Amino acid sequence: MLLLKFPVFCSLIIIWGCLGIPSTALDETSWHSDAFLRNGGQRTKPKNAVSDKEISDTALKIWNSVKDLNVQYDGITHKKQPLKLFTENQRTLRLDPYFTRLFGFYSARLGVEDGCVRSIGCKEAQNRFIENISQNNGPISILYGFLTKKGLFKGDYKAFKESLQTIWFKPYSRSRGVLDSSAFEHVFLGEIRDNAVMGLHNWMRMYDEELGGRFVLTRDGNYFPTAKPAVANVIFTWNGFPKNQGSTFFMKKSPAVETALYTLCFMARPGQNCPIDLGSFQLNVKTFAWTKDKGLIGTAYPEIP
After folding, report:
1. Which among 262, 257, 284, 286 has a CA at the least distance from the CA of 132?
2. Which of 47, 84, 150, 243 is catalytic?
3. Distance CA 64, CA 69 (A)
4. Cα angle, residue 88 at apex, residues 223 and 70 outer, rounded to 5°
5. Tens of pLDDT along 26-79?
6. What is the pLDDT of residues 211-264, one digit of tens each?
7. How far apart are CA 77 and CA 85, in angstroms?
8. Alpha helices (H) in the chain, listed in sequence order
9. Given this model, what pLDDT does residue 246 score?
10. Which residue in 270, 264, 267 sits closest to 289, CA to CA?
């Protein structure tokens, strides 16, 4: 578990769509993207080479390839104090060990070099994470089949996993030229810059932080966790620092599903609305490339139109 030198943080849940509230993520749009992803020094096909329906159909296959995890959200449905995001009987919920193993290598504070930059142990943990989410017939396997069929990626499955490693884990600098950030850290773990929170779009990370006493809900909200998909927005402070515009995140989904969905939209609709129709529910996934390297993700998150 990542230990940070900050006080406790708190949160307010607001649910997208059900309340008709538009998505805003001001710090998320600090990066622009391009209509292609560099791959081996070659430009891939432009975004209009793939239709919205093809993207949506593939997203649905990815979505259904892994069952929702048995997660119960509690804090926004009652008036008990103190409020909790997760129910008390889920205090021992088993998280993906390949995912949580990575938490301790990263420093939330930008301007401080992340431990992964020089750590062989971190690189090994990154490799194990990629291998675990890339099992046959899983979300990443489905993604690879689609991207190769549409000409958005050229190479075998090993090369694709290496590409994922680069897209998500290659370090870059957001502050002072220090290698203090990556797509994985920003999207899944969160960062702090200028006394404000950036990124943090993952329920497992929120669960782990709440369990460690660094996540404290302060107000009730309204949401519908049985929506398909269940997507929430969390307005919060993290370790004493605010993210007033909130973070959107998929509820109950595995890191493999989230990584596949974000990568799909990054390669097919970078910087654009990536509409996904999951039957009774529609949403966009937003991805933006890192400004200094269009082959790396700056941020990614779900958004209700």
Report:
1. 257
2. 243
3. 12
4. 60
5. 344 333 333 333 344 333 445 457 999 999 999 999 999 998 887 877 655 555
6. 887 876 655 443 445 555 678 777 777 888 888 777 888 888 999 999 999 999
7. 9
8. 52-64, 97-100, 120-133, 139-149, 157-169, 183-184, 203-211, 255-268
9. 77
10. 270
Order of all β-strands in the sheet with 231-238: 215-219, 9-15, 231-238, 241-250
- Kindly name the residue from 47, 84, 150, 201 that is annotated as catalytic: 201
- Please check whether residue 286 is in contact with residue 301, taking contact to mean a CB–CB distance below 8 angstroms: yes
d(CA 149, CA 126): 27
E-strand spans in 16-133?
38-39, 42-43
Rounded CA-CA distance 165/181 in Å is 14
For residue 224, how many other CB atoms are within 10 A of its CB? Answer: 13
Check residue 28 and give its pLDDT.
42
The pLDDT value given to residue 70: 79
186 a catalytic residue? yes
Tokens encoding 21: 């509230």
Supply the mean pLDDT for the chain: 79
**Buried b / exposed e along 23-47 (16+ C-beta atoms within 10 A):** bebebbeebebebbbbbeeeebeeb
Using CA atoms, how far residue 302 sits from 17, 166, 275, in Å, is 12, 22, 10
DSSP track, 116-180: GGT-HHHHHHHHHHHHHHT-TTSHHHHHHHHHHHTTS--S-HHHHHHHHHHHHH--B-SBTTB--
Residue 297 to residue 164: CA distance in whole angstroms = 11
Taking the CA atoms of 150, 152, 156 and 158 in sequence, report the sign of the dihedral they define.
Answer: negative
Nearest to 304 by CA among 278, 279, 275: 275
From the list 84, 150, 186, 294, the catalytic residue is 186
For residues 100 and 83, give the distance between their C-alpha atoms in angstroms, rounded to a whole number: 24
Q: In this predicted structure, what is the pLDDT of residue 212?
A: 84
The confidence score (pLDDT) of residue 173 equals: 96
